[in-house]
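Slide 14.
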Amino acid sequence: MSTKHPSLLASIFKMKCPKCREGEMFTQNSIFPLKDLLTMPDRCEKCQQKMEIEVGFYYGTGYVSYALTVALIAATFIAYWILFGMSYNDNSVFIALGISVGLSILLQPWLMRLSRVIYLYFFVRYDKDAINNTSQK
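Slide 15: predicted structure.
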């Protein structure tokens, strides 16, 4: 009897626990209010995985957030170049830059959450029996 494993990418974008891929990583699904944007439970409600492995663990997410922002800006520039073309003569480079910066500012709260999720996924491996092992204890 085979059970279907949750997809890695779907679990990351849904912001699920890396160990069981079922529990929520954040206390609120919405990013609003912004003051509660990064509020996480101490442990996953499904498998009891600690969300902060050690003190100061999430300082490393700055690197992940930086990489995501650079990738977003590069993708925006490439999309603008393909759709509209770019030239220094008509200032389209500056328009593309403005769109890229505006989009990265607008998406920054979501990118901050996503960087925490990706960073935790680097250190915690999926365990298909995580929920079963927790319920037996």
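Speaker note: The chain has one domain: 8-136.
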